[in-house]
Amino acid sequence: MPAFAPPLREHRFCLEELFDLEAHARLPGFEAATPDVVAVILQQAARFATDVVHPLNRTADEDGVRFEDGRVTTPKGFREAYARLVEDGWPALTAAPAHGGQGMPHMVNLLFEEMLNGACLSFGLFPGLTRGAYVLLSQHGSAHQKALYADRLASGEWAGSMCLTEAHCGTDLGLMKTLASPRPDGSFSLTGTKIFISAGEHDLTSNIIYFVLARLADAPKGSKGISLFVVPKVLVEADGTLGARNAVSCGAVEHKMGIHGCPTCVMNFDGATGWLVGEPHQGLKAMFAMMNAERIAVGIHGLALSEASYQAAVAYARERRQGRAPGGPRDPSLPADPIIVHPDVRRMLMTQRALTEGCRMLALWAAQALDVSERHPEPSARASADALVALLTPVVKAFLTDCGTEVTNLGVQVLGGHGFIRANGQEQHVRDVRITQIYEGTNGIQAADLLGRKVLQLGLFESFASPVRGFLATGPVPEFAEPLAGAFAQLEEVTRLLRTRAATNPDEAGAAAVDYMRLFALTALAYLWARAAIVSLPRSNQDFYRAKLATARFFMSRILPETQSLQARIAAGAAPVMALDEVMF
Predict the structure, then answer these.
(1) How many CB atoms lie within 10 A of CB 252?
(2) 248 and which of 132, 143, 171, 272 could share a cystine (Cβ 3.0–4.6 Å)?
(3) Which is nearest to 443 in space by CA: 517, 360, 526?
(4) What CA–CA distances, in Å, run from 487 to 400, 481, 522, 563?
(5) Pseudo-torsion of CA 294, 297, 298, 303, nearest 10°?
(6) Mean pLDDT across the stretch 510-534?
(7) How many whole angstroms separate alpha carbon 484 and alpha carbon 245?
């Protein structure tokens, strides 16, 4: 089984040197999150990920879950590892102290989730979903609902899951049919079937708290008629003890391409008892609290598997001997050189490295803004940060998972035929990461959200543009500033172009959205790589910083030029996309 070692030095560089954790810890409530304390947390997290979770990855993929008589049994070792996870307090890392949590920054939790999911994505999905459920409940639940569920979701004692999708509607939630009927005691009876429910049924916890979207009988049509309900798998008595089993059951478990250790369930609600969360017909707005948390989490899935694949590719390239270096043998005493000497292998490894490290910086930038949006004492600072979080969330979800697929496929290619063999682990990364481009809203939907809603409708572009302009105004080193300035100018130009075109032809935004997303993301990575390079230059006599600068230069010269072709594709407009009549496909 390939080894996995969380990149703690990279984590420290991002937190302490790029994003100034020491200053970040001055936000109200983060006083304990000093660099020394966080370093210890991350060290312990790395030990948990490598020693407890990573050994489960191969067997989880091979054995998968078992489904018998409506019950799901997780792979061997999952229950013990999950009990250890809860015992060590990891699910409560960012939860509020009022709910038994540690109140750590989102930035710290993001790196913990990267480690956990890089060790075994199937396992990491369980606490990740529970954390999203806790976020939703803490923001939109009633005082009574929080009293019943918040502490146990925060600790991981009980699990959480969200139930949105139905077979006939997919992402178009306005078409859902699950019905909620009021009862005299204030509860509701929910009837319907949900599909593709990750961790909808399992044996890791004594209870699962479902957040279910459904319609009331008098609901208006479309998405404005959706309400949100909390539905426990096992009913909870007033004193918090478990009561009778609720009328919710797992009808089937999907057979999937990857993430075999986490069940993807068909969930049946047969008059299940639930309670309204928030106001009637406002459920989709409330559910987005969990969905947005999960979208950032899914982006971390892509990052985590990128890191794991890169590590495996580097280890193989150092050991595998084949051919000779173009400039002559590196070790004439041996019959061949390690393949890491070959320029094309280097190209693949550097692409993996530049994208993975850049994606980590992008995710942490979003997490830092999320912390500021929740903690900063100044309303204006919170509002600015909130706008940046809204803008970056679809980018983190889509670009990091697109890169996850790109990077893990390169990992297979570095190993050649051995990458295609299951024993070497790389093909599992490809299979596991592929779903991340689909769930929590496909990446095409994320791109449409970024361009159509966040940029064109809500006008949030300036929340990104302002810090980029501010950085360029400081006169940074031209080697890194000029490529960034060029990409940023292209992004500004196509943004203006699309504002004009979309005003008269709605197809323009839809046709350009995916290319715009990638152009935006590459420009954001150029900004972050330029910042990382400026930090690294004074220490360029040290290997770590020399590698950082080399990777920044590779990104600027070999990856960022893609923005030129993206600009050309966007400028081509919607006509080539829409020209073919439907019957001609």
Answers:
(1) 14
(2) 272
(3) 517
(4) 19, 10, 8, 6
(5) 170
(6) 98
(7) 57
Longest dimension (CA), the chain: 85
d(CA 463, CA 387): 6
* Residue with token string 């918090």: 240
Distance CA 176, CA 379 (A): 38
Q: How is residue 383 written in tokens?
A: 């509002």
Amino acid at 337: D
Output b/e per residue, 331-354; b: 16+ Cβ within 10 A: eeeeeebbbbbbeebeebbbbbbb
- Asked if 405 and 435 count as a contact pair (C-beta separation under 8 A), the reply is no
How many helices (H) and strands (E) in the chain?
Answer: 19, 11
pLDDT at 171 over 90: no
pLDDT reading at 257 higher than 90: yes
Please identify every residue annotated as catalytic: 440
* Secondary structure of 124-175 as H, E, C letters: HHHHHHHHHHHHHHHHHCCHHHHHHHHHHHHHCCCEEEEECCCCCCCCCHHH
Q: In a 10 Å sphere around its CB, with 0-12 CB exposed, 13-18 middle and 19+ buried, how is residue 119 labelled?
A: buried
Rounded to an integer, the average pLDDT of 343-350 is: 98
CA distance 390 to 399: 15
Interatomic CA distance for residues 531 and 468, integer angstroms: 10
Cα gap 211→223, rounded to integer Å: 16
Cα angle 96-99-101, degrees, rounded to a multiple of 5: 50
Are 491 and 560 spatial neighbours (Cβ–Cβ below 8 Å)?
no
- Please check whether residue 233 is in contact with residue 208, taking contact to mean a CB–CB distance below 8 angstroms: yes
Give phi and psi for 363, each to the nearest 5: -65, -40
Render pLDDT for 55-99 as a digit per residue (tens, 0 to 9): 999 999 999 999 999 999 999 999 999 999 999 999 999 999 999
What's the CA gap between 223 and 93, in Å, rounded? 34
Start-to-end Cα distance in the chain: 45
* Separation CA 154–CA 54 (nearest Å): 23
The residue to which tokens 């067997």 are assigned:
59
CB 65 within 8 A of CB 75: yes
